[in-house]
Amino acid sequence: xxxxxxxGSGLVVALAGGVGGAKLSHxxxxxxxxxxxxxxxxxxxxxxxxxxxxxxxxxxxxxTLAGIANPQTGWGILGDTDHTLxxxxxxxxxxxxxxxxxxxxxxxxxxxxxxxxxRLTDVTAELAAALGxxxxxxxxxxxxxxxxxxxxxxxxPFQDYFVRxxxxxxxxxxxxxGIERARPTPEVLAALDAAAVVVLCPSNPIVSIGPIVAVxxxxxxxxxxxxxxxxxxxxxxxxxxxxxxxxxxxxxGHEVSPRGVARLYADFLDGIVIDNQDAALAPVIxxxxxxxxxxxxxxxxxxxxxxxxxxxxxxxERLGKRVEQG
Amino acid sequence: xxxxxxxGSGLVVALAGGVGGAKLSHxxxxxxxxxxxxxxxxxxxxxxxxxxxxxxxxxxxxxTLAGIANPQTGWGILGDTDHTLxxxxxxxxxxxxxxxxxxxxxxxxxxxxxxxxxRLTDVTAELAAALGxxxxxxxxxxxxxxxxxxxxxxxxPFQDYFVRxxxxxxxxxxxxxGIERARPTPEVLAALDAAAVVVLCPSNPIVSIGPIVAVxxxxxxxxxxxxxxxxxxxxxxxxxxxxxxxxxxxxxGHEVSPRGVARLYADFLDGIVIDNQDAALAPVIxxxxxxxxxxxxxxxxxxxxxxxxxxxxxxxERLGKRVEQG
Lengths: 326, 326
Description:
The structure is a homodimer.
Chain A lengths: L10 E6 L2 H15 L3 E5 L5 E3 L2 E3 L1 H10 L17 H8 L10 H15 L4 H11 L5 E4 L7 E5 L2 E4 H7 L8 E4 L9 H8 L1 E6 L8 H6 L3 H7 L4 E4 L2 E2 L2 E2 L4 H7 L6 H7 L6 E5 L6 H5 L4 E5 L6 H24 L1
Parallel strand pairs in A: 1-2, 1-9, 2-5, 9-10, 10-13, 13-14
Antiparallel strand pairs in A: 3-4, 6-7, 6-8, 11-12
Helix pairs in contact in A: 1-2, 1-13, 4-5
């Protein structure tokens, strides 16, 4: 395994959506980097259910870094039950979005604090600290930026598309409501300023990384960074490892491949980690001016997370040296 | 067992606090009166916890009439668990007020509806209907009227006194915040207009029945009623069957006996049901112009609830005839 020491004392900044993002973030933490890790998380999936503010991606990253995530699903809390949700069903309400009893504590306390006027950034820091997470978990912004999925039959709020309708609709467009009024938080800007490396996790490029880099000013900030920015492709052998990224890329006119992903980030990306199964694509991706590292990118175990994170950092480190020499 | 038929087609209106009130209300329902039963419930105990609106007495009546109450405690839901609350504790918050997972569904949905502008009366009706409760459960008013307990060392919100500090403080005064702005709801007034009998359940006369009859106009309405109004004493042999009513009566200067209770209601009460253990007090209570019925008032079983309710109604019926003849 290659060293990650050369990332020096700067921050390791990860951009993450849900399960894939949480896994690689966890891998970074497992490399002894938890104190230097800062995960900027998509909040486009956030929504209100039964009056509670749910932040699915923040929760997945939080639970994973706290070591309490459900390893079967990747989301939710290990061993959680759903007595509250079943009772909500008994009260005649729809229950298509699974909420665990332990999980509800997060939603209840977050909602309480937000209603009291706290910023999502501060609330997230409080929850993470209480669970002993030393990495910083930062929402991409404090404003609500709800992802809306356009389908041939109309617009759908993201969770309606993703959970309720099980991604069966064809996605012909995606927008982030109110994104023009959102701003990167001071914490996000400070993290990028202090970054030694930026890692785009293997999350959906359209609806997970997409909202983050759509926050006005964020993409420009990434372009201007003088530290290596590397992505791990969420597309392997023409398929998304999880979720609808493959179909979404296709119907939105993108190539369903690591090259298709690399193109979406081409204006700021220095390198991309792709799977062994896609090794043949390395030359055409390099034609975009993006370096390629080929390895096994499928994270089945904690050891996989740690190894992939270490290899990704070592790759970034080599790119950083090239930048300095260049 | 005596007949309850003579209450005719009018409503059986019960005034109730928590466990004792719920039990006798249930007893009334068990006498085939659920469709004609209307329970006016104390909301002075209501408070906000973790941003959720909790209505302890409404919930106890609701769960009891729905047949899902925990028979051990009298409050909460049978077989409920507390995974959410434990997780809230893990987040570093105090957890002195027990909230069950199933129970939380009630608080979450109530809070959602109230925040959307619904009246507590309507929310309560919706929850009761969903659980198949045919009796009407009416909050005493829709305004917040928080009970404040005065102690030698200062004021305490009711649940701080009752649950957090386990009623260890001496009560030197009780007030209901904002009661001067509260009004009986149209539903409460309509129920009293349609009443064939009014039953004051064996609930704490100071902090359960007290707030109800303190809602401006309510007590005057009871005084003006032409149907029998009967109470069941919550004090038996100088002690409260449950809770701090005995100590509270004493420190507030009232006699800790069925007579002390009867005096608090003397301006509108026609009769009181007292326990066999207090039979000797019947003559002195009758001196107040209040009729007395002596029986076993301790409700240990559902059969007890049903019998006590039937006897109370039969007693009221006899009083009603006396009123008509008088």
